Amino acid sequence: MTTARMWALDIAERRRPWIISLKRTDKLESLGEAREILKFARAQAKKTAPNLPHPQLCLDVIEEGIVAGGLAGVLKEEKGFNDIILSETAKGLVHFFFSQRATTKVPGVTDLGLKPRQIKKVAVLGGGLMGSGIATSLVLSNIPVVLKEVNAGFLQQGINRISANLKSRVKKGSMTQEKFEKTMSLITGAVDYAEFRNVDMVIEAVIEKISLKQEIFSDLEKICPAHCILATNTSTIDLNLIGAKTHVQDRIVGAHFFSPAHVMPLLEIVRTEKTSPQIIVDLINVGKNIKKVPIVVGNCTGFAVNRMFFPYTQSAHMLAVLGVDIYRIDKVITSFGMPMGPFRLQDLVGYEVSIEVGKQFVTAFGDRTFKTPLTELMIENKRAGEKNGKGYYIYDEKRRASPAPEVKEIIEQARKNSKIMPDGKPIVVTDREILEMIFFPVVNETCRVLDEGIAIKASDLDVSSVLGMGFPAYRGGIIFWGDSIGAGHIYSSLKKWSESYGGLFKPSAYLEERAARGIPLSAPVAARNFGSRL
Fold first, then answer.
1. 3-state SS, one letter per residue, for 311-350
2. Nearest CA among 246, 159, 233 for reference residue 202
3. pLDDT tens-digit readout, 131-158
4. Which listed residue, 208, 255, 383, 469, has the most CB atoms within 10 A of its CB?
């Protein structure tokens, strides 16, 4: 401040020249060089943000300032800002910004005056990809972790995974070697429950097997202290089943991280009708402390994110067996703004996982699921996606994907097995129809999630769709985008497709009502008792 004051006095008393920054040109390259730099920047912006107008606007403003002077650049900036602030992109981003900051406000929980308890130590059960990722998130926020595995070999593999996660930060320069060693010292390995007697929270992250989880939670009830939070990272299994053999269901909660857990920002907090509000308050605070965005949802198959998006892959598979090229489908979806298309995503996740998760949804929502033959045919042909470098795409040593021509025969076989192509001929659809046939069922299922009280606020599901599934933030989230399309068009389209292709497209009662009455999908649901699900 003193230096700035002396500088200003020097200018006022003419001991130093008064240089107006808008008129400075001494740091600029020649006009030809500047335009080449801007040309390169435009190409980069178009490549990394093809659907966003504001990077190009910023470059236009810079160019105007270089060519016509600083004042002209400022005037163009003002006009451009006034225009773009009214755009759908700006509205979507503003909506997402404020929605993200409202997720921790949970009626009936955060308004009770409860204070979060301090979580001094957390135990993580399972050192696989999810467990090690969760442990990494915790130690990065200086929370000591007990990592338990079934034997010393698996335990060392889990610790090695955590070490690798942290070393990648050292390699990138975002963590010093000293900090790495200090963070690793927060991890205690265990092959029994001896260290669990003084932990404040346990996060179970073992395989999705109900009997195993029931056994684990029965053991945790006996061993852990009475205040300990008992959390599961399950992505689909009903929490009431997991806690069925315990007497502490008020302490059981879902802490669903998304893979990779130390990178993905969403934490889906799942509560049953018995989960204590204090447990929810504690877990929301843990989420914030480990730099996650916590979303509180109710208990059902798939919870919120996986429940909303199960039609995403199923719709894509239906289109594939109806004769639409899978690479065209993926291109349409990525052009819309998703990080990858449904077939590229399935290669990443793995086919066995897809089949197991699919079984859960078929059991729970059999009237509106499509059982694809394609995934099992891929496994029969010894294709496993990224795991063995051969899926719908072929992968090189750097995991770069390119279409696999030999998959065409497998897809043809799936089409023959399904026998749903009209008159045995591929359907003809536009890119817009592909987009809508994949995302309208997602909007429809999200409406059911709202209607059933699995989520209280539509904005929470918008945030979940962006942070959990990669839905483009500049489109505001799945419900915000649905409202921009209009409930009427979504309903009429789904009704038409359901008559041709079945229950996967059947409009929900919520969507039908909103379309008939002209009410936005995001408008609050009429007052109800959410206790049964939330």
1. HHHHHHHHHHHCCCCHHHHHHHHHHHCCCCCHHHHHHHHC
2. 233
3. 999 999 999 999 999 999 999 999 999 9
4. 255
Q: How many residues does this entry show for the chain? A: 534
pLDDT band at 534; cut points 50, 70, 90 = low
3-state DSSP assignment of residue 253: strand
| pLDDT tens, residue by residue, 437-491 | 999 999 999 999 999 999 999 999 999 999 999 999 999 999 999 999 999 999 9
Contact call for residues 233 and 213 (beta carbons, < 8 A): no
* CA–CA distance, 344 with 327 (Å, rounded to integer): 9
Beta strands in 162-299 (DSSP E): 187-190, 201-204, 229-232, 252-257, 266-271, 293-298
Q: How far apart are the C-alpha atoms of 356 and 302, rounded to whole Å?
A: 12
Contact 235, 320 (CB under 8 A): no
Contacts of 405 (CB under 8 A, 6+ apart): none
Coarse DSSP helix, strand, coil percentages of the chain, rounded to the nearest 5 percent: 55, 10, 35
Which one, of 468, 529, 485, lies nearest residue 107 by Cα? 529
Cβ neighbours around 289 below 10 Å, total: 15
Indicate the pLDDT class of residue 530, thresholds 50, 70 and 90: very low
In whole angstroms, give the CA distance from residue 498 to residue 500. Answer: 5
Q: How far does the chain reach from its first CA to its final CA, in angstroms?
A: 53
Please tell me whether residue 295 adopts helix, strand or coil conformation. Answer: strand
Other beta carbons less than 10 A from residue 500's beta carbon: 11
Separation of alpha carbons 51 and 45, rounded Å: 10
In 10 A of CB 354, how many CB atoms? 21
Going by the DSSP 8-state scheme, the letter that residue 507 receives in this structure is: P
Angle between helices 407-418 and 305-321 (to 10 degrees): 90
Query: Torsion over CA of 524, 529, 532 and 534, rounded to 10 degrees?
Result: 50
Write out pLDDT tens, residues 17-45: 888 888 888 888 888 999 999 999 999 99
Q: 3-state DSSP call for residue 48?
A: helix
Alpha-carbon gap, residue 9 to 455, rounded angstroms: 60
Instruction: Find residue 203's DSSP bridge partners.
Output: 124, 231
Q: Please name the helix (run of DSSP H) or strand (run of DSSP E) that holds residue 229, with its range, or none.
A: strand 229-232
* 238 within 8 A of 287, measured Cβ to Cβ: no
Tell which residue, 461, 131, 448, has the closest CA to residue 296.
461
